[in-house]
Write a structure and sequence with these properties.
Radius of gyration: 39 Å
Strand content: under 5%
Number of strands: 0
Largest sheet: none
Helix content: under 10%
Number of helices: 0
Structural class: little secondary structure
C-alpha cells in the first residue's frame, strides 16, 4: 500500500514549516567564587575499636558469654 495525499482535506493552521531559529544572545559567565574549604579532622570514637572498626570486646562480669545477665544469689 502506498500513502497518497488526500486532496479533499486542507492544511491545518500552525503546521507550516518552522522558521529558522535565531541564536540567543549569550551572557558572559559569572566569575567563579572560591569558597574557603573547611579542613577535615579525624574525630575520636567513644569506644576503642580494633583494626576492622568494630568495638573491642570487653568482658562484663555481670553478663555471660551470650550477653544474658548472670544471676547471683543474695
Amino acid at each position: 500500500m502506498r500513502d497518497k495525499k488526500d486532496n479533499a482535506t486542507f492544511d491545518l493552521p500552525g503546521f507550516a514549516p518552522a522558521a529558522p531559529l535565531e541564536p540567543e544572545a549569550k551572557r558572559p559567565p559569572l566569575p567563579r567564587i572560591r569558597r574557603a574549604t573547611l579542613k577535615q579532622e579525624q574525630m575520636e570514637l567513644l569506644e576503642p575499636t580494633d583494626n576492622s572498626g568494630l568495638p573491642v570486646w570487653v568482658r562484663d562480669e555481670n553478663l555471660d558469654l551470650t550477653g544474658l545477665p548472670v544471676w547471683k544469689r543474695d
